Amino acid sequence: MTATALKLSNHNDTWQPLCTRADLVAFSGVAAWLSTPEGPAQVALFYLPGHAQELYALDHFDPFSKAYVIARGIVGDIKGSPAVASPIYKQHFRLEDGQCLEDDSQQLRVWRVGFKGDEVWIEG
Amino acid sequence: MVNHTMSTPTTSSNTQKLIIVGNGMVGHHFAEQLVESGALAEFEVTMFGEERHRAYDRVHLSEYFSGRDAESLALCDADYYHTHGIQLRSGEAVTAIDREQQLVVTEQGHYAYDQLVLATGSFPFVPPIPGNDSEGCLVYRTLDDLDAIQAAAKNATNGVVVGGGLLGLEAANALRGLNLDTAVVEFAPRLMPMQVDSEGGELLKEKIEALGVQVLTERATQRIEPGDNSRLRMVFQDDKVLETDLIVFSAGIRPQDTLARECGLSIGERGGVVIDDQCRTSDPNILAIGEVALWNQSIFGLVAPGYQMAKTAVATLTGGDICFSGADMSTKLKLLGVDVGSIGDAHGNQNPGARMFRYLDPLTQVYRKLVVTSDGKKLLGAMLVGDNSVYDTLLQYYANGIELPKEPASLILPQQSGAAPALGPDALPETAMICSCHNVTKGSICSAIDAGAADLGSVKGATKASTGCGGCAALLKSVVDHELEARGVEVDKSICEHFAHTRQGLYDIVRVEGIKTFSELMQKHGNQETHRLGCDICKPAVASILASCFNEPITDAAHVPLQDTNDTFMANMQKNGTYSVVPRIAGGEITPDKLVVLGQVAQKYQLYTKITGGQRIDLFGARLEDLPAIWGELIEAGFETGHAYGKSLRTVKSCVGSTWCRYGVQDSVGMAIQLENRYKGLRAPHKIKFGVSGCTRECAEAQSKDIGIIATENGWNLYVCGNGGMRPRHAELFATDLDDEQLYRTIDRFLMFYVRTADRLQRTSVWRENLEGGLDYLKEVILEDSLGINDELERQMQHVVDSYQCEWANAISDPEKLKRFRNFVNDARPDPSIIMTSERGQLRPA
C-alpha cells in the first residue's frame, strides 16, 4: 500500500518530488540528491514492490566507513524487519527507522517518502 | 663448568632448570603438555634438537615428496617455543650427560639441569652387510634423509628398499613418488611380518606388485658392490643379484640410547632406557619418553604411546599422578594405497585356546581375520588387509571388551551376506578410547559437549581429539553427532533464516527443479515466517548458484538485487566508495599497445595504478558514474572484464615457460591463457586462482593456488586445493603427466564438483580439509568416476564455457542497465564527499 503519499501530497510545503518510479531498482537501492532549506543531503531510496511499505528513504552516509554508500547495500529482512547491509563493513540498518542492528549507538536518519502517481515524493 | 650466558636472565631461585633432549614428535608433545599444564612458570626450559628443523610430523614424512615442505610438516608455528619462553636449540646435538654435575654437554657449551627428559627417539637400523656404506646407500628417517634420497634419485632410474615392514613400505612409496622403478627386499617370508600372517602377507604382496613395485621376500643380502648397469649390485644368499641405483635401508628402528648408555643409566638387554610407570629412569632426575624408552621390556614404536609417556612425564614433574601402563599397539595404515589393520593379538599366538575366523576374497583382494576367546564371546585380536572399513568397529569390541555377536564371523563377512551393522556410538561405554593420540575417551567428549561444545569443531578444540594422526575422524564425528542428537541439539545447517537448507542443498534444488530466479526459489523453498526478502547471506549465495548453473548475466533485472555491490557494479568497492577496475590480462601476457591503453585510461580518469599479485593491473579510484565510460574505452581496445569483483575465476598466473626460459619444458604461458579463457566467468562458492609453471622450479607459485599446474617432460602435473593468504596451504598432487585434453577434463570435473558441494565462501583448501574421505575420495570421484557423475560435471562446465559473455560488454550495450551507474538518480553531479590527495605521484583517498 502506498496510501501515505496520496494523503500528504497537497498541504505540506516541505514535501517535494525527488525522482520517478523508473529511477528505482526493485528490491534494491538507489541514491538521490536532496536539496532542503537546511542544506543538501544524500538519500538512499529502497523499493520493495508488493510489500506493506514499498518505499524507504535513509541517509546514504555509512557511519562506519564514513562513505556515502548505503544505497549500494543488499536489501533483505533480518529478524522480522526489512534492512540493508552496508556494502563496506556489512552492518545492518533497519529500513523503518535506520537503527543499526549491530550497534545500538548508530542510527541512520530517515525521511518520510511515498509515491504520487509515478513520482517519488519526500518530506525534507 | 656452567655456561651462564645460556640461561635466561629472568630465572628466579625457585624455578627448576629443565632440559629436554630431543625435539621430535614426542619431545614436542611433552613441551606442549607442559605448556598446557600451566606449570611452565616453575621451570626454565631448554630443548635440544639434533636436526636443523624444528619438530615435524614424521608419520606423514612421505608427503614431503608429494608437495609438502618442512614448514607444512612442522608441528607448531615458528614462534611457538619463543612465545612460551622455551629455549629451542635446533641443530645442536647433545654429546654427553654428566650426571654427577647435572650437566648436559654439546659442542657449544655446558648446560646445567635439575630435571632432564630424554626424548631422543630412535635411529634406523642398517643391517651389517658389507658395502652398506657405499654411495647410494641411504636411510629413511629424517627430512635430511629425504633430501639425500631426492638428490640421489636425480641420477637414478631404480631404487631398492631393504625392509618390508611398515617403514619399508612407506619408503617404497616415497621412491615411487620420485618416479623410480622400485623393489622391496624383505628378509622374512612375507611383507609386514609383525602385522600380518602368511595369507595376509601374500595378498599384500599381490596388491603391491600390482602397483608396479617388485617384492622379493626371503632374501638376505650378502653384500653390496658396484653394479654393471646400475650404480650398485646386491648379492643375495643364493648368489642371485639385483642391480639398483640406490638402496634405502628401512629394516626397523633401534632406540637412540647412546647418551644414556654412556652416562650409566640402566639399559635393556636389546637397548632402550629402562623407565618405570612414572617414566623415570634409574636416575631420579632423568626421565625418558618415546621410542628411546623401555617400559616393561617393551619399546613402543608408535606415536600414540609416546604421547602418553609425554603426558605421564609432565605429571611426574608437576606433581600429578598419571601412570604409564602400557599401550595398545593396534594400528591401521594405508601403505602404498593398501589398507592394513592390526588389532591386539592379531596372530593369535599370545592367548592359548584362542579361536580364529578367516575371510579371504581373492577377487576383491580382501583378507580379514578375527581372533576370539575360546567361548567366542570376546575379541582378542584382528588382522585386516585390503580394506579397513571394519577396523573402527572391531577396535571398539576389542578395546572395550564388548561381547561379540552370536556369530562373530558376521563382523568380517561382506555386507551383502547380512553382516552385523557397525557398532553404533551408543553401544560404546564411556571409557571407550576414541582418539588414542590425545587420549580422548567417549566420556571426555561427552563432558566437552556438556561444557558447551556444540559442534564438531568445538569438540576438537576442547579435547584435541582427531588432531593427531586423524585416524579417528569418522568415529569422532559419529560420536559427536550422536551425543548432540541425544541432547536434543539439532545440528542446524541452514544457510540463514530464509532457507532451511545448506548451500549444497540449495544448489541441488536449483539444479533438479530448474529454478532460475531467486524469487521462485524463495516462493517454493523459503521460510514463510520471514518477509521473504532474503538477506546479504542467502542472496549472493543463490546468485552464485544460479550463475554456476545457468550463467545468465548477473546484471539482468531478476539477478541484480541479489549481488554484492562489487558484482552489481562489476568493480571492487574501496573504502571511500570509489571502485577499482581490473581488466582481464590472461596468463599475465599483455601487448605493449594494450599496456599503453591502460595508461591512457588511467590518466584520463585519474586512476591510481598498481600491479596485482595475479599479474594484472588494478586501476583504483574510479567513480561509480565513470565506470561505463572507462569500460567503453577498455572494451574498444580489446579488453574484457577480469571478474576481480566476483566469487569466480580470478587469474591464471604463469611463468614464461619454454618460450623464453632455458629451463622451461612446456609452454606455460600458452596453457595459462587457454585455461584462463576456458574458465573465465565461472562463478563458484569463492574466488578461484590458478598458477601454471613451466618447470619444477615453480616460478608461478602454482602450489599456492586452488589449481596448480606444473610442467613435466611428459605433460602436466596437476595440484589442487592450495591457498596463500591468511592460512597458507600447499596444493596436493592430484594427477601426473596429463596431456592438454586430460588436464582440461580433470579440471572441469574438479571445479564443478567443488561448485556443487562446497559451502558458501569456502575456498577449495577449506573445502578439501572438510571433505570426508579427503584426497583419496576426491581422486576416486574425479579420476575414477566413483559417483558416476563425471559426464554430467563435464557437460555442466561445457555449458558455462559456451555461454560465456563479457559482463561489461553486455552491460554497456543496454541503456537500462547503465541507469544503475548514475551516482544520483536525480542529479548529474559526482559525489562531492570523495576527496583525493596526491602521494608518490598518484592520487589516493584523502
UniProtKB/TrEMBL annotation, chain A:
One Pfam family hit: Rieske_2
Keyword field contains Oxidoreductase: yes
Residues in Rieske-like [2Fe-2S] domain copies: 14-123
InterPro entries for this protein: NirD (IPR017881), Rieske-like_NirD (IPR012748), Rieske_2Fe-2S_sf (IPR036922)
Gene3D superfamilies referenced in this protein's UniProt entry, alphabetically: Rieske [2Fe-2S] iron-sulphur domain
Keyword line: Nitrate assimilation, Oxidoreductase
Domain of life: Bacteria
GO MF terms held by the record: 2 iron, 2 sulfur cluster binding; nitrite reductase [NAD(P)H] activity
GO biological process, one term: nitrate assimilation
Annotated protein name in UniProt: Nitrite reductase (NADH) small subunit
Annotated source species: Vreelandella aquamarina
Lineage: Bacteria, Pseudomonadati, Pseudomonadota, Gammaproteobacteria, Oceanospirillales
TrEMBL record, chain B:
FAD/NAD(P)-binding domain boundaries: 17-313
Flavoprotein is among the record's keywords: yes
Start and end residues of each Nitrite/Sulfite reductase ferredoxin-like domain: 574-636
Domain BFD-like [2Fe-2S]-binding span(s) in chain numbering: 433-480
Metabolic or biological pathway: Nitrogen metabolism; nitrate reduction (assimilation)
InterPro entries given in the database record: BFD-like_2Fe2S-bd_dom, BFD-like_2Fe2S-bd_dom_sf, FAD/NAD-bd_sf, FAD/NAD-binding_dom, FAD/NAD-linked_Rdtase_dimer_sf, NasD-like, NiRdtase/SiRdtase_haem-b_fer, Nit/Sulf_reduc_fer-like_dom_sf
Residues of the NADH-rubredoxin oxidoreductase C-terminal domain: 330-395
Gene Ontology annotations of biological process type: energy derivation by oxidation of organic compounds; nitrate assimilation
Residues annotated to bind [4Fe-4S] cluster: C655, C661, C695, C699
Gene3D superfamilies, per the entry: 3.30.390.30, BFD-like [2Fe-2S]-binding domain, FAD/NAD(P)-binding domain, Sulfite Reductase Hemoprotein, domain 1
Chain sites annotated for binding siroheme: C699
An MF annotation (GO) of this entry: heme binding
Keywords annotated in UniProt: 2Fe-2S, 4Fe-4S, FAD, Flavoprotein, Heme, Iron, Iron-sulfur, Metal-binding, Nitrate assimilation, Oxidoreductase
Family designation: Belongs to the nitrite and sulfite reductase 4Fe-4S domain family.
Complex formation: Homodimer which associates with NirD.
Protein name according to UniProt: Assimilatory nitrite reductase (NAD(P)H) large subunit
